[in-house]
Amino acid sequence: MDKVRLIDIKELILSDNRDLAEQIRKYLKDNKVFMLNLMASPGSGKTTLIIETLRRLKDKYQVAVIEGDIESQVDADKVAAEGVTAVQLRTGGACHLDAPMIKEALDTLDLTALDAILIENIGNLVCPADFDLGETCKAVVLSVPEGDDKALKYPVIFSVCDALVISKTDYLELSDFDPELLAESVRRLNPSIRIFTTSCKTGAGLDEWCSWLSDQIKAATA
């Protein structure tokens, strides 16, 4: 009897994805365009954070948004209503964006007219963490109602991100969410991660987040 022959499909997919992601990263660098991969679970406030970020940065930079969704284009319509170019990627069931999808979106944009691209990934704390999109930076959003134990349950996404945005802090008084406990567990995984505590309802922390983002855009476009 023949020995079992194992073909690691996931590793083949990830390897091909990494190769294309590196090509995208070089393409962005050559055109001096910053790209952010924003990841989070459904309902964490990704779209609202993007809208508030656009309102603070769009007069300073030329920004486009790539919206990932399984079916709808509701979020892309919200971005377009802000006067910002939006590209909708409908995955038809896939739980994450990947480098080939991002290349398709980039092919519709004139990078010479842009400083920054914000990607709203599919709502999921697992799959998106595995797929390099060729981004300049990665950030994860975690809302107060989700609880402060998510870094223990989903460590990979917190270990690969450059920034963590704690959202919906206006709910803190109504919950037992402990920001310090979360920060401690996240920094054990990723000592260099930047952590921002924000509320899109009150505006708290948004200027600090946008200032950091602005510094990343300046560095990429210099």
- Helical run tally: 8
Average pLDDT metric: 93
- The gyration radius over C-alpha positions equals 18 Å
Report the biggest beta sheet as strand number plus sense, adding barrel if it closes: 7 strands, parallel
Order of helices and strands: HEHEHEHEEHHEHEH
Q: Indicate how many domains the architecture comprises.
A: 1
Strand sequence of the main sheet, in spatial order? 3-2-4-1-5-6-7
Strand runs, count: 7
Helix content: 25-40%
Walkthrough of the structure:
The model has no long low-confidence stretch (mean pLDDT 93). This protein has one domain (9-221): Rossmann fold. It starts with 8 loop residues before the first helix and ends with a helix. By secondary structure, it is an alpha/beta fold. The protein has helices spanning 9-30, 46-57, 74-80, 99-106, 150-153, 155-160, 179-189, 206-221, and strands spanning 34-40, 63-69, 85-90, 116-120, 137-143, 163-167, 194-197. The chain has a 7-stranded parallel beta sheet with strand order 3-2-4-1-5-6-7, sandwiched between helices.
